[in-house]
Amino acid sequence: MDSMNTMNTQNAYEQEIDLKDLLFAILRKWKPIIASMVIFAVLIGGAKGVLTYRNYSDPEAVKNRTETYETEQQQYEDSKNILEREIKNITDDIANRQDYMENSLLMNMSPYDVGEARADLFIKTDYEIMPGMTYQNIDYTNTILQSYQSLITSTAFLEHIARSTGMKDWYLQELITVERGNTTITGTNISELTNLLTIRVKHSSVTEAEDLLDDILKQVGALSRQINGSIGEHTVDVISRSSGSIVDLALATKQKEERERLDSLESALVEKETALKELKEPEMNSPTKMVAVKSAIKYSVLGAVLGAFMIIFIVCVFFVMSDKLYSSKELRNRFRVKVLGELSQGKKAGKIDALIDRLEGKAASNTADVEYEVIVANIKNYTDGIKTLLVSGTAAPDFIVQVVKQLEGHLPGMQIVAGGNILQDAETIRKLSQCDGVVLVEQCGLSTYQAIGWELEKICDLKKEIIGTIIVGRASGASGPV
Description:
Elements: H1 2-12, H2 19-27, H3 30-57, H4 59-103, H5 105-108, E1 114-125, H6 141-152, H7 155-165, H8 169-173, E2 176-181, E3 196-203, H9 206-230, E4 234-246, H10 249-278, H11 288-321, H12 328-335, E5 339-343, H13 351-360, H14 368-382, E6 388-392, H15 397-410, E7 415-418, H16 426-434, E8 437-443, H17 449-461, E9 465-472
Parallel strand pairs: 5-9, 6-7, 6-8, 8-9
Antiparallel strand pairs: 1-3, 1-4, 2-3
Helix pairs in contact: 1-17, 3-11, 4-10, 6-9, 7-9
């Protein structure tokens, strides 16, 4: 009945790749992997190093590298100088604008509460049109008006006022505007009222704006004497004054634009400093031997990776394609047969192989006596009433003979019959028909799942009981089916 279940399980089994087994199959090939890495590293790295040395030693190549370096070095110096000048200019501009934003009265007053004082000045000259005359006198009125408009906002004019107010003249200058305009006053001769100048003064308060306007008007007399002597006779009269608090949206826009310019400059400075920091100076031509060594090291690493990949790929292909017995776990899953015990192949594992065994979950190897005691105990449990036991399998004949001798010593009341390969040995087939039970001895890396399946099928056909299997385990460090 157990034999029939074994055959049914075999027919229904679908093989799956155990990634853990695959991983450890690769790890157990660490010696070929390292050897392949060393060989490929030496071959590829050495070849590349020699070729690089020859190429770099060529006079034409040396000349080309020198010319290229000189060109790149000049480009680097030019770019560096440009960036440094730009950074200096931007830094100076930022400092000036920050000073202006901090100290300018115009930039610090509220645009929604601006004190403004205004005065309208009438400039009268002695120019008259001569009726009926072909040639007329030269009219200097326009020139005089332009002179007042320019001089009142000039630095020289504002120096006197700046000393009295304690304000720098360029900050004072932006508070004053002078406009020309034609104004008609009802009931007055229009020809006498077309030459007007309007002086507007802004300040943080109306009172201070009026005081500043007073200072300007006091200095207008000195300007009048200067222009009388240099351009032409005229008179200046203040025809109206006004003052008050206003909302200056143009000032709000100007303050916003100044802040945006400062932010833009700071962003540009960060960009330029980053560009200067990232600017890399071209390297001097390295010695030919050093270049060859660097190239050899680089390609040695690539060669080592290639060598490891090649062996790993081969191991994976053989693991997937191979039908050889790899572990007792796979044998149980595939055929549902009992595993009576495992025997080592007698080779002592090295430190690395022993570490791999521990990682894979394999217990440390027992002595041969302990291994056989476990096998004998399992056989006794599964062979109640069996007198003749055939020991057969596809393991190496030496292992089968060794197992038979050990079982004869531990099972004196049972007849132990040694057999060969049931699939190939006619004498073993005849012994199979005369025995009561069968113990199969299979060897990892040698026995195949297909052969084991055929053995089980033949045993089932003769209706003999399958006691179980003894696995001759691979030596630590061997790859199993590969």
